[in-house]
Amino acid sequence: MAWIYLLIASVFEVVFALATNATHGFTELWPSLLTAGAAAGGIYFLSQALRTLDVGVGYTVWTGIGSVGTVALGTVIFHESMTVWKALAFVLIIGGVLGLKLSDKLSPASSSS
């Protein structure tokens, strides 16, 4: 269940980052409320995941998925540039996230699901 909570927290993290861009310095009401709600949701679900996951693994995966999701959706929604270097960085981040998940499963003391 911890990994599901972490995935939900990561979705909130992406929404938080994208909504923050739409607040225009917190001068727009609805994007500002969405930003605050997404931040709260992300922190809540991250805290639930960290009840069983190591903080180093959980936080790294959360920020990794949040980073990749934000940049990927930023290119679609805000027409930000995508370069070969950004794509390579995505592959490295995703590889790191998968490696952390695999290391959690292979750990003999693992109690997360």
Automatic annotation (TrEMBL):
It is a multi-pass membrane protein. Keywords: Cell membrane, Membrane, Transmembrane, Transmembrane helix, Transport. The keyword Metal-binding does not apply. GO terms for cellular component: plasma membrane. Its main location: membrane. Signal peptide: none annotated. The keyword Glycoprotein does not apply. GO terms for molecular function: transmembrane transporter activity. It is found in: Cell membrane. The chain crosses the membrane at residues 29-47, 59-78, 84-103. Belongs to the drug/metabolite transporter (DMT) superfamily. Small multidrug resistance (SMR) (TC 2.A.7.1) family. This is QacE family quaternary ammonium compound efflux SMR transporter. It comes from Actinomadura logoneensis.
